[in-house]
Design goal:
By secondary structure, the protein is of the alpha+beta class. The chain has one domain: Nitrilase/N-carbamoyl-D-aminoacid amidohydrolase (4-Layer Sandwich). It is built from five helices and 17 strands. The strands form four sheets. The protein has a six-stranded mixed beta sheet with strand order 5-4-3-2-1-17. A six-stranded mixed beta sheet has the order 8-9-10-12-15-16, covered by helices on one side. Helix 3 runs parallel beside helix 4 (190-211).
């Protein structure tokens, strides 16, 4: 892999419908726009081909899953090849009968699959009933080597856990990337919504700071009804957008809106990682001799 100092990256933030073809058209147009602006690495949001089906437990939703390689990776792989970009997609993977994963797939500039990551932390909360669908990942926290760098790809709920970001960093990630689907419960008041959004952004910017790495976070936007309550506007998720790209000190390089489809592009300086770690030597000063209890659920 050739060492790259600067890299133009992009993410595609958009609302989703239940029409797969329409979603893929939106995604394709966004990717082409990003490539036209010089992006060489493009991140898509979590489960971007359809609605966020995990608001309910419905056995029929398993029919939405696909194999890897499969229809989505074939289509996006061709696009990556045509545009000479590295593309990070998010797929509901059918691995085997009864075994399904929430999987990120990295597509190389020649359209091949460079690697994949299966979501490790699986939430089980009202409106986010993912444990019904997803088997926890078994590929570990391993960066995916590509022509633009080693990509530390994590997925949504993973973004709240410093251990995941740190392990990707220790394994040699050059960039941390988070395809995401997160939003508000419409019944929450304005102050609570602001607290949640601020906590979400602060957590991921902290991963950038504590690991000295750029971070790319791509969230979806738009309101999606809870299927059994549609069209009740108080039952569902208002995805809050606010996708962003941050540098190694958590500085915001580009930031999307709450409720618009956007193609966000920024240039990141990968060469700054070593410079930042020299003056903020968190990895040097880690007390690895004193962290044994981190493998316990709770110390009591």
């Amino acid at each position: 892999m050739t060492k790259i100092d600067t890299l133009k990256v992009a993410l595609i933030q958009h609302s989703c419908s239940n029409n797969r073809d329409d979603n893929l058209t939106t995604i394709t147009n966004g990717i082409k726009s990003a490539a036209d602006q010089g992006a060489k690495l493009v991140l898509l949001q979590e489960l971007h081909t359809g609605l966020y089906f995990c608001q309910e437990e419905n056995e029929q939703n398993f029919d939405l899953a696909e194999s890897i390689p499969g229809p989505t990776t074939n289509k996006l792989g061709k696009l990556a090849n045509d545009l000479n970009i590295v593309l990070v997609s998010s797929i509901f993977e059918m691995r085997a009968p009864g075994i399904y994963h929430n999987t990120a797939v990295v597509l190389e500039t020649d359209g091949s699959i460079a690697g994949k990551y299966r979501k490790m932390h699986i939430p089980d909360d009202p409106g986010f009933q993912e444990k019904f669908y997803f088997t926890p990942g078994d590929l570990g926290f391993t960066p995916i080597e590509t022509s633009v760098g080693n990509l530390g790809v994590l997925i949504c709920w993973d973004q709240w856990f410093p251990e995941a970001a740190r392990l990707m960093t220790l394994a040699g990630a050059d960039i941390l990337m988070y395809p995401t689907a997160i939003g508000w419960d419409p019944v929450d008041n304005k102050i609570e919504k602001e607290r949640q959004l601020d906590a979400w952004e602060t957590t991921q910017r902290a991963h950038a700071i504590s690991n000295g790495l750029p971070v790319i976070c791509c969230n979806r936007t738009g309101f999606e009804f809870a299927p059994i309550e549609a069209p009740n506007p108080t039952k569902g998720i208002q995805f809050w957008g606010n996708s962003f790209i941050a540098g190694q000190q958590g500085e915001i390089l580009a930031h999307a809106s709450t409720d618009e489809n956007e193609v966000l592009v920024a240039e990141i300086d990968l060469g700054r990682t070593d410079k930042i770690r020299r003056v903020w030597p968190f990895l040097r000063d880690r007390r690895i001799d004193a962290y044994q209890q981190l493998n316990r659920r709770f110390i009591n």
